[in-house]
C-alpha cells in the first residue's frame, strides 16, 4: 500500500484530448478485448453515435414495486423502440421482456438489500454466470459501494463477476453506488469510478457532479450516467445534455423516464440528445411537441 502522507491531488485531466489507444474500435478502453466482448459492447452502444440510452427498471431488486414500474409487462414493450438497452433483474426480464425484443440486455446480478434497511451496502452475487449466458446478457451490473460499510464485499462481488465475465466475454457494468450518507462530490466520484474501472469493468455507471468532465476523462472505459431522483423533464434533459457534452457515453436512466407523465416522449427526447446531438433546449421543444400528440 502506498504511503498516503503528502499525497498530491490529481489535477491534469487533459479533458480536451481524446482517449489514446482507441484505434480499431469505437469505444474507449475496449480495443484490446476480444471479439465477443466487442460484440456485446456494440450491442449496447450504437456504433454510429458511440453512445447508449439504457432504460433502468431494476429498482424492484431492493425497492419492490415502484411508482411507474407497477406493470413492467405493459411499459417495456412501449419503450422498446426508443431505448438501446434494457437494464433489469432476471425475474423482470424473463417475465416481461419478449425474447423477440431486439434490445441489448444489462442484467442486474447483485442483490441482498431492501428499502427496509438503513445500510444497503451489503450484497451478494445472486445470478450465476451460466444464467447470464443463458439469457444472452450483454453485460452484468454490479452495485459497488466504495467508502461504505459493505465496500469489501462489494469489491469481492465485482471481482467475481468480472472474472466470470472475462471467461465468457461478457462485459461487467460497475454501478457506483451512492448510499444515503455517502458524499456526492467530484472528489468521491473520481475516486469511486476510477477504483471500479481499475478493477477491470468494461462500463462504469455513475452520477452527474461538479467537474464531471474530469471524472469522465480519468475513467478509461465508457461512463453512463444515472438519472437519479425524479426531476422536472426540462431539468432531466439538461442533465442528459450536460453529461453528454462532458464526456459521458450515454445515460442509464430510470425514474426520469418511467415516472414522467409521458415516458415515451421522454425516452425519445433523451435519445435525441444522446444519439443526434440535440441540445437540451431542442430536446425540450421536441418533448413538448411529442407529449401533446
Ligand atoms: C440502482 C440503479 C438504478 O438502475 C439506477 O439508479 C438508475 O435509475 P435512476 O435513473 O432512477 O436513478 O442502478 O442503483
Can you offer a commentary on this structure?
The chain is of the alpha/beta class and 293 residues long. It has one domain: TIM Barrel. Helices cover 40% and strands 14% of the residues. The chain has 12 helices and 10 strands. An 8-stranded parallel beta barrel has the order 1-2-3-6-7-8-9-10, surrounded by 6 helices. It has a two-stranded antiparallel sheet with strand order 4-5. Helix 9 links the parallel strand 9 (223-226) and strand 10. The protein is globular, with a radius of gyration of 18 Å. The model has no long low-confidence stretch (mean pLDDT 95). Residues 56, 58, 87, 143, 175, 177, 226-228, 252-256 line the site of ribulose-5-phosphate.
Amino acid at each position: 500500500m502506498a504511503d498516503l502522507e503528502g499525497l498530491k491531488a490529481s489535477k491534469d485531466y487533459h479533458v480536451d484530448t481524446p482517449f489514446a489507444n482507441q484505434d480499431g474500435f469505437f469505444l474507449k478502453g475496449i480495443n484490446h478485448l476480444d471479439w465477443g466482448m466487442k460484440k456485446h459492447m456494440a450491442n449496447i452502444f450504437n456504433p454510429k453515435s458511440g453512445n447508449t440510452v439504457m432504460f433502468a427498471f431494476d429498482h424492484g431488486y431492493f425497492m419492490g414495486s415502484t411508482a411507474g414500474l407497477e406493470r413492467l409487462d405493459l411499459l417495456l414493450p412501449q419503450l422498446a423502440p426508443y431505448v438501446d438497452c434494457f437494464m433489469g433483474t432476471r425475474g423482470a426480464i424473463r417475465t416481461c421482456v419478449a425474447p423477440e425484443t431486439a434490445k441489448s440486455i444489462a442484467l442486474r446480478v447483485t442483490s441482498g438489500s431492501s428499502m427496509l434497511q438503513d445500510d444497503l451496502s451489503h450484497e451478494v452475487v445472486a445470478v450465476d454466470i451460466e444464467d447470464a449466458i443463458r439469457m444472452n446478457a450483454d453485460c452484468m451490473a454490479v452495485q459497488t459501494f466504495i467508502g461504505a460499510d459493505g465496500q469489501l464485499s462489494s469489491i469481492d462481488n465485482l471481482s467475481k463477476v468480472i472474472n466470470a465475465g472475462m471467461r465468457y466475454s461478457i462485459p461487467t457494468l460497475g454501478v457506483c453506488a451512492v448510499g444515503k450518507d455517502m458524499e456526492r462530490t467530484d472528489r468521491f466520484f473520481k475516486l469511486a469510478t476510477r477504483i471500479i474501472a481499475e478493477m477491470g469493468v468494461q462500463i462504469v455507471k455513475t452520477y452527474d457532479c461538479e467537474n464531471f468532465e474530469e471524472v469522465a476523462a480519468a475513467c478509461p472505459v465508457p461512463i453512463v450516467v444515472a438519472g437519479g431522483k425524479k426531476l422536472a423533464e426540462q431539468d432531466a434533459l439538461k442533465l442528459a445534455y450536460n453529461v453528454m457534452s462532458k464526456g459521458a457515453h450515454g445515460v442509464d436512466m430510470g425514474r426520469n423516464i418511467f415516472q414522467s407523465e409521458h415516458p415515451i416522449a421522454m425516452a425519445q427526447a433523451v435519445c435525441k440528445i444522446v444519439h443526434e446531438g440535440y441540445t437540451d433546449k431542442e430536446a425540450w421543444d421536441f418533448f413538448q411537441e411529442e407529449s401533446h400528440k
